Amino acid sequence: MHISSVFDSGNIVVIKADDASDIELEIRPDAGEDHFQWFHYRVSGSRGTALTMKITNARRASYPEGWQNYRAVASYDRDEWFRVPTRYEGGELIIEHTPDADAVWYAYFAPYSLDRHYDLLAEAQTVEGVRLERLGATVDGRDIDLLQVGEDGDDKRSCWIIARQHPGESMAEWLVEGLLERLFDDEDPVAREVRERACLYVVPNMNPDGSTRGHLRNNAAGKNLNRQWEEPSAELSPEVYYVRAKMEATGVDFFLDVHGDEALPYNFISGGEGIKSWDDDKAARERRYSDALLAASPDFQTKFGYPVPEPGEANNTMASNWIGERFGCLAITLEQPFKDTADTPHPLGWSPSRCRKFGAAQLDALLVALRAAR
């Protein structure tokens, strides 16, 4: 038996693996040493062997409450992922599974690989009316890529969608894949009207360095990108620096920042209620989007979410708050669960397929917002 993680988004440290019934592992912290929770590793040579794998530093993870009622995912082909028995006990995350193949991969959530990311970009640029633009380079030198869907113009709204500021939240890019798939469907009337009314700017992965390194929240310089929007640095947070510069050039009429939440078993929106310029008009725009998304997807709900800050108390280093204040637009953060939706559970939990469908549903809500803006 051998355990490895030296691959795209891999993250695990082997403490002890001489006994399949008592394997001890640790999650390696992000650059910056202030966050960890994402794990992704392979066990080989274990077909038919009952494995008990203990992540011994789980209690010190960024969000230990996220381990409650959580189940890890596993795959034999790295395409189809399924849930395996998992429990949080004595400060350890314990994963139990008997593989049916020679090698099995385990992860915190179904990974969205860098290869799949590049395939998404490559396929998108072949669609009529879509352009692929390199905005700059990450700390590690990777491309910061933007998809522009449609031509901008005075009669069109500038709609921005970004994902994976926090690289371990891979469900965010799965959602964007589903959104783009529907957006590119010329036979879908909702997609056609959205493209008629808006020019869309999409960054499917804001943090390719952190994604590849197996980070939960930080980039290669140890920076949490969703705390860099007031004063981004070309050296330490170039991902935000170059995206923000492009936003200044295009303007922003709508902004959606896609994330995942470790603890809450719900899909929900976090809005801009705490920004200084919050008013009845902004509240109505947010309600309109939220109500339309409720109608489009039973997987969405509005009862549970984050506490609402007091007026003027928003953290403007965060993307949706800074953009909502700077451009006066509807700017929201969309959260998905690592676990499952409590109201609409499924044996696979929250999964890539469900993420993609939820992404497609965003277009229904966006169209409602665009119609009201005219």
Describe this structure as you would to a colleague.
The protein has 374 residues and is α+β, with helices and mostly antiparallel strands. The protein has two domains: 2-107, Immunoglobulin-like, CATH 2.60.40.3120; 114-373, Aminopeptidase. The chain is 27% helix and 24% strand. The chain has eight helices and 17 strands. It has helices at residues 114-124, 171-183, 189-197, 208-213, 238-250, 280-296, 319-327, 352-373; strands spanning 2-4, 13-16, 23-26, 40-44, 51-55, 73-75, 82-83, 86-89, 92-97, 103-107, 130-137, 143-149, 157-163, 198-203, 254-261, 268-270, 330-337. The strands form three sheets. A seven-stranded mixed sheet has the order 11-12-14-13-15-17-16, sandwiched between helices. It has a five-stranded antiparallel sheet with strand order 1-4-10-6-7, with no helix packed on it. A five-stranded mixed sheet has the order 2-3-5-9-8, with no helix packed on it. A hairpin with a 6-residue loop joins strand 2 (13-16) and strand 3. Helix 6 crosses helix 8. The model has no long low-confidence stretch (mean pLDDT 97).
